[in-house]
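Hi support team,

I submitted a single chain yesterday and got back a structure, but I'm not sure I'm reading the token output correctly. Could someone confirm the output below corresponds to the sequence I sent? I've pasted both exactly as they appear in my results page.

Thanks,
R.
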Amino acid sequence: MVLYQPDLFHTYIGHEQFVNFSNSIKNAYIEVYKMASNAKNTIAIENIETLGPPLYTKAKNHGQLLRIVKQFENENSTYAPSSWWKIAPSCDNIKDNNDRYNGDDYSFLNLVGDKNIGVTSMVQDIDFEKTGMVFHLPIFLIQGSNDILASKNLNKFYFERIKAPRKGYFFWFQMLLIV
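Hi R., thanks for writing in. Yes, this is the structure output for that exact sequence:
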């Protein structure tokens, strides 16, 4: 939306920016395999090898890889405190909790797709290095320094080549670059 109708926005702020989801999944696979090998985590290594390298046609395989990614992110990151995420009392009930849970499954399935049940990935064809290099408004990206899936190894290179009136790239709680 920012690329096609910049007049509707003042600034774009992206958090853990994907540039190309397919490349991010492939990179995550390589990174967690290295981390598991370095940690001599035989269970993770076996699970990664059983999955094989992406790209996957089943949502289940994406989910299995992302569980391993989360395991290593949890071991190497400090998340925002849970006190930052409070559910409003009016939404803290069985129905709304079930809706949030089911909505997460629905969103994930549509994000990654599943060939066997005919769901096309919403992100499989997105490549911002081809379609998102020029912004007509300021752009700021916030990056977790230990994020594996939306890796700084991929999105920092993208950011450096973006053309924008003003741009900034920040690590979580640590400013890196502002132009």
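A quick pointer for reading it: Residues 173-179 have pLDDT under 50 and may be disordered. Let us know if anything else looks off.

Best,
Support desk
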